[in-house]
Amino acid sequence: MSVYVGEFIGTILLVLLGDGVCCNVSLEKSGFKGGGAVHILIGWGMAVMVPAFAMSNFVGCGSAFNPAVTIGAALRSGDWSTVPGQIIAQLLGGFVGAAILIILYGDHIRATADDATVRGCFCTGPSIPNVGLNFLSEFVATFVLVFTLALIPAGADRVVWVLVYGVIVACGASFGGLTGYAMNAARDSAPRLAYQLLAPNFGKKNADWGYGWIPLVAPICGAVVASLLYNALAAAQMFG
Predict the structure, then answer these.
(1) How many of the other CB atoms lie within 10 Å of CB of 21?
(2) Separation of alpha carbons 66 and 187, rounded Å
(3) What is the tens place of the pLDDT at every residue in 53-75?
(4) DSSP letters of 123-190?
(5) pTM for the whole structure
(6) Domains present along the chain, CATH in parentheses
(7) Nearest to 218 by CA among 148, 145, 142, 167
(8) Per-residue model confidence as pLDDT tens digits over 121-170
């Protein structure tokens, strides 16, 4: 049970801190409005690292907070016993985190006339709509995330979460301008649903599920390929 509780609470924290950065710099009348891309990059990196440190105290919790990372880890270890429960906990955590933000920033959401700006606080979207390239962007970003995380030495203990911060910031700096670098259904699909169901509706709310399937499916595909490559290289004894 501690695995699921850790993933649930950790994903709430991840979305609170990560999507909270987006709300803080994007919504009207926020004191930090206009903070920009660097603010978001630093904030999102910390949003992943802080819960990862904290939730690693829960017995058995791998601090994934991400279905793609969880599936990738299972492919490498061969242990699928807790995967369904972890994914459910992550998605529920993402929804709850977004719901809390919708309450906290309710006045600012109502003050923001552009619905796309509000939606962008909770889920991602492409700068140039192109299904093939948008899918590839999320695929590549998640491949980099999962492959590099798999290669970080386990013996580094909790220091690894500082390296995770570096990976998240690097992915955002390199790929974020394309699709918002979701890399994670728990921080995109679940908050997207929360936005659709709970955000104030001025008669123009659109969750954009026509694009929303990409950050749900592409990260899992990227994680699978990254883990299969890792397994192949490990079988060939390429790692020291």
Answers:
(1) 22
(2) 8
(3) 888 777 667 788 999 999 999 99
(4) S---SS--HHHHHHHHHHHHHHHHHHHHHS-GGGGGGHHHHHHHHHHHHHHHHHHHH-----GGGTHH
(5) 0.94
(6) 2-235 (1.20.1080.10)
(7) 142
(8) 999 999 999 999 999 999 999 999 999 989 886 655 666 778 888 999 99
